[in-house]
Please model this.
Amino acid sequence: MEGELERYLDRVLGPCTVVGDRSWVHGRAAVIEVRDADGVTWFAKRHSGERNYRAEVAAYRKWVPALGERAPNLRAHDEELQMMVLSAVPGEDGSGLALESDAEIQRQAGWLLRRFHDAESLGSWDDFAAAKLDEFEKWAARADGLLERTQLAFARREVRRLSEVERPVRVPCHRDYGPRNWLIADGRVSVIDFEWARPEVWVNDLARLYFGPWRERPDLQDAFLDGYGRAIDDSDRAVLLGCGALSAVSTVIWAHAQGDAAFEAIGRENLRRLMKRT
Model:
């Protein structure tokens, strides 16, 4: 990979110096920070799977520009290598900061998410409930030995209840929205990592926060929603619960397959909380 990466970056940026490896532990994408001859920082990202590569390129083309300077720009990409070159945005990885206590950070994050969601009108999701149940059953088929029958039965029941929800509208969604994909510089929020971006129901982009820091700090939820410009109603909560159960199950199974014990533990804890709540 190193030879291919160097040759590609040389074509796009000219001679570069590698600053560091910024890849996630799960290894689904390699991310390298580089500096060109003019001292400008760039990030080269190479996906290990075509689906996420195509999804991220599409997001950068269609939706990410709505965020302006609050997200990277796509400088170049190569389909054969499944590689992208992205501009740098300033800031520190939010997962290492005490963002949960900062209402202004949450307000900005809500405002940015609304801009992303409004980037394209995608219309109603006619087969929403059926699609979610089908997705759940595919994950459940891989759950042998990882989850108890009672856990799967609970999650399946919650997903099936989505059929009671009025047909929702789809919007462009980040699908991994939370502090680990926010960069903070002098109190200014930027957003990164769009490889999971797909059309979804708006409220599902709030799930990591709703089942995470907002549980203990409803004022942070209020700040976020104030920035977003919309409240969560009963129908939205039903979607959060059903899709939250699906997400908890898929997180456990996916993270276990990737050897990401910390992420698997998050999925298990979210499922436990959901079961306790109902």
In short: The beta strands are 16-21, 29-36, 41-47, 74-78, 83-87, 92-93, 170-173, 182-185, 188-191, 198-201. The radius of gyration is 19 Å.
